[in-house]
Amino acid sequence: MPKKLNPFHEPLILEAGCDESGRGCLAGPVFAAAVILPQKTVPGLGKTLNDSKLLPAYVREKLRKIIEKKALAYGVAMISHEEIDRINILNASIKAMHLAIAKLDPVPESLLIDGNRFIGFNNIPYHCVVKGDGLYQSIAAASILAKTFRDEYMQQLHQEFPHYGWNQNKGYATPGHKEAILKYGFSPYHRRSFARAMQLKMMF
Fold first, then answer.
1. Are residues 181 and 199 in contact, defined by beta-carbon separation less than 8 angstroms?
2. Are 36 and 73 in contact, with CB atoms under 8 Å apart?
3. pLDDT tens for residues 65-94?
4. What is the distance between the alpha carbons of residues 87 and 192, in angstroms, rounded to a whole number?
5. Dist CA 141 CA 164 (whole Å)
6. What are the pLDDT digits (tens) for 147-186?
7. Residue 186 in contact with residue 195, Cβ under 8 Å?
8. Which of 149, 136, 147 is nearest to 110 (CA)?
9. What is the DSSP string of 136-197?
10. What is the pTM for the complete model shown?
11. CA trace torsion 189, 63, 91, 203 (10° rounding)
12. Closest C-alpha to 144, from 31, 2, 1, 8
């Protein structure tokens, strides 16, 4: 059973947790989410909420419904594979977080960012937390929204290009995905900057 996560970093202020999904993928967009949770136990979340990568898909979907219903506010945003190629994946991830935060109403008084890199947004104080999705409820909630929204999007792209197996690998560099690229070439949704890096490193 996963450990119970911290309900807040600072008491009595509106904190938004922020996380992204799809940063290391070969194809598709990067998604980010920002979530403000009540600083109290939310029924259905307390004992189950965790880093989305550690939870099975059916649990993530269950938690997503609770988060969408019980959060004080949430926002989800995406940056396309084309823009990732233009501005690089780190900047794209941060931009997606900014877009997600901009959707929050009320405006948060503080941000908890998963990871160690961020660019400030609208002068809101922020804290970067390495592996924060396994430490704070709001970051874990953002992790779940970003992951489930992106997985849903990749399921849609899979209908257009089923031979890459995006319904299973979600665009990550699995052996099956790389074999499909060898056989069929790159789709319009593959990140060309990542493709060049793969070729340079002779990943195949």
1. no
2. yes
3. 999 999 999 999 999 999 999 999 999 999
4. 12
5. 29
6. 999 999 999 999 999 999 999 999 999 999 999 998 998 9
7. yes
8. 136
9. BHHHHHHHHHHHHHHHHHHHHHHHH-GGG-HHHHTT---HHHHHHHHHH---TTB-HHHHHH
10. 0.93
11. -50
12. 31
Q: Which of 164, 198, 195, 193 has its CA nearest to residue 82?
A: 193
SS3 129: strand
User: Do the Cβ atoms of 14 and 108 come closer than 8 Å?
Assistant: yes
Q: What CA–CA distance (Å, rounded) separates 2 from 137?
A: 12
CATH number for the domain running over 15-150:
3.30.420.10
The crossing angle, in degrees rounded to 10, of helices 137-160 and 57-70 is: 120
CA distance 143 to 118: 16
Question: Element (H or E) spanning 9, and its range?
Answer: none
Domain extents in the chain: 15-150
Which one-letter amino acid corresponds to residue 128? C
Reading the block at residue 89, the tokens are 């994946």
Tell me whether the omega of the peptide bond preceding residue 162 falls within 30 degrees of 0, making it cis. no
179 to 11, 166, 183: CA distances (angstroms): 50, 13, 6
**Conformational region of residue 94, where left means phi above 0, alpha means psi within -120 to 50, and beta covers everything else:** alpha
Please name which of 2, 34, 15, 24 lies closest in space to residue 146, comparing C-alpha atoms.
34
What H or E segment, with its residue span, contains residue 84? Answer: helix 81-87
